[in-house]
């Protein structure tokens, strides 16, 4: 025999008690039964040499199962969700047959090449067959075997076999003794149970008092911890503010120091690039000097044209003079002609 502990919850204080109840042990066979003959209540044994979960041989080259990428899984789920949404939208926007008017209903129309008759009722026929009448079979009589042999009887007078008062005395003593013993055992068990209940109540009261004290200490510790965390948070916030203020002051000082040399250089660079200029100088550079250059160019062009015209006149006069000097020499006779 063995005992099994079963928890029983008391609704009063939320604690658990355990009681043991006897339970017969299952009989186990000496040899193992085949797997086909085993019942559901019996454990299933197997040879671990043929179990796939048992690794045998070299384990250096085992296949490592790749860990799926959560980003890829999320991408696949998003793609399936989009495909399902597109399919549902396509079904919603698919053209459908309009609803029938009031008092009418749609009917199925055959669109096949060969039409066939449609009917809701199934064709059936009734066939009858006349049989001969049968008579009811009477009940089978009870079988009574035939009597054989001779009848023999024995007469026993009162008091010949046993004396009831004398024979029943030990039985009665045993019954009474067992009853009294069982009663005494029950009384002792009740007294023991009462003492156990009293001890349990005392232990429960002590345990409840200890639980209350523990809860009080835990609450006190929680308050202290919260106060400590709050103070640490406040101090941390103060330090952060001080650090932020120091960083702001340092940043401002660095910015002032950096801008002290930056502004003159920026102004100088802007002045060099012409962002800051003198209006008179700018007016001379943008208006007067271009006009002056234009006038000078025009005057030079006029002088160049005059010189070109003068050169042409001189060339023409010189050419005419040269032509006039060459014509008289051609008209005069030569010495040989005059002598002849």
TrEMBL record:
<keyword id="KW-0969">Cilium</keyword>
<feature type="coiled-coil region">
    <location>
        <begin position="207"/>
        <end position="256"/>
    </location>
</feature>
<comment type="similarity">
    <text>Belongs to the flagellar radial spoke RSP3 family.</text>
</comment>
<dbReference type="Pfam" id="PF06098">
    <property type="entry name" value="Radial_spoke_3"/>
</dbReference>
<keyword id="KW-0963">Cytoplasm</keyword>
<feature type="region of interest" description="Disordered">
    <location>
        <begin position="1"/>
        <end position="44"/>
    </location>
</feature>
<feature type="compositionally biased region" description="Polar residues">
    <location>
        <begin position="1"/>
        <end position="20"/>
    </location>
</feature>
<keyword id="KW-0282">Flagellum</keyword>
<protein>
    <submittedName>
        <fullName>Flagellar radial spoke protein 3</fullName>
    </submittedName>
</protein>
<keyword id="KW-0597">Phosphoprotein</keyword>
<dbReference type="InterPro" id="IPR009290">
    <property type="entry name" value="Radial_spoke_3"/>
</dbReference>
<keyword id="KW-0206">Cytoskeleton</keyword>
<dbReference type="GO" id="GO:0005929">
    <property type="term" value="C:cilium"/>
</dbReference>
<keyword id="KW-0966">Cell projection</keyword>
<keyword id="KW-0175">Coiled coil</keyword>
């Amino acid at each position: 025999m063995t005992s099994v502990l079963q928890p029983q919850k008391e609704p009063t204080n939320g604690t658990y008690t355990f009681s043991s109840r006897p339970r017969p042990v299952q009989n186990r066979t000496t040899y193992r039964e085949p797997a086909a003959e085993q019942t559901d209540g019996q454990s299933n044994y197997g040879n671990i040499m043929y179990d796939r979960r048992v690794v045998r041989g070299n384990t250096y080259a085992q296949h490592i199962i790749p860990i799926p990428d959560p980003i890829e899984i999320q991408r696949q789920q998003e793609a399936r969700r989009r495909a399902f949404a597109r399919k549902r939208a396509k079904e919603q926007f698919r053209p459908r047959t309009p609803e029938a008017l009031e008092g009418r209903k749609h009917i199925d129309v055959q669109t096949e090449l060969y039409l066939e008759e449609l009917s809701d009722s199934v064709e059936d026929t009734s066939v009858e067959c006349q049989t001969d009448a049968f008579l009811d079979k009477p009940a089978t009589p009870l079988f009574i075997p035939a009597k054989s042999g001779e009848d023999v009887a024995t007469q026993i007078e009162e008091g010949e076999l046993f004396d009831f008062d004398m024979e029943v005395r030990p039985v009665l003593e045993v019954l009474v003794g067992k009853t009294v013993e069982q009663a005494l055992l029950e009384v002792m068990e009740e007294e023991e149970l009462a003492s156990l209940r009293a001890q349990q109540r005392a232990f429960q009261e002590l345990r409840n008092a200890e639980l209350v004290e523990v809860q009080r200490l835990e609450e006190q510790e929680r308050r202290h911890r919260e106060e400590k965390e709050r103070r640490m948070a406040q101090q941390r916030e103060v330090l952060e503010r001080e650090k932020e203020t120091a960083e702001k002051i340092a940043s401002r000082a660095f910015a002032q120091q950096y801008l002290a040399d930056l502004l003159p250089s920026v102004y100088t660079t802007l002045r060099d690039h012409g962002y800051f200029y003198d209006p008179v100088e700018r007016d001379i550079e943008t208006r007067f000097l271009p006009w002056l250059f234009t006038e000078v160019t025009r005057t030079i062009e006029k002088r160049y044209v005059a010189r070109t015209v003068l050169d042409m006149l001189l060339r023409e006069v010189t050419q005419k003079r040269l032509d006039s000097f060459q014509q008289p020499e051609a008209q005069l006779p030569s010495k040989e002609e005059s002598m002849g």
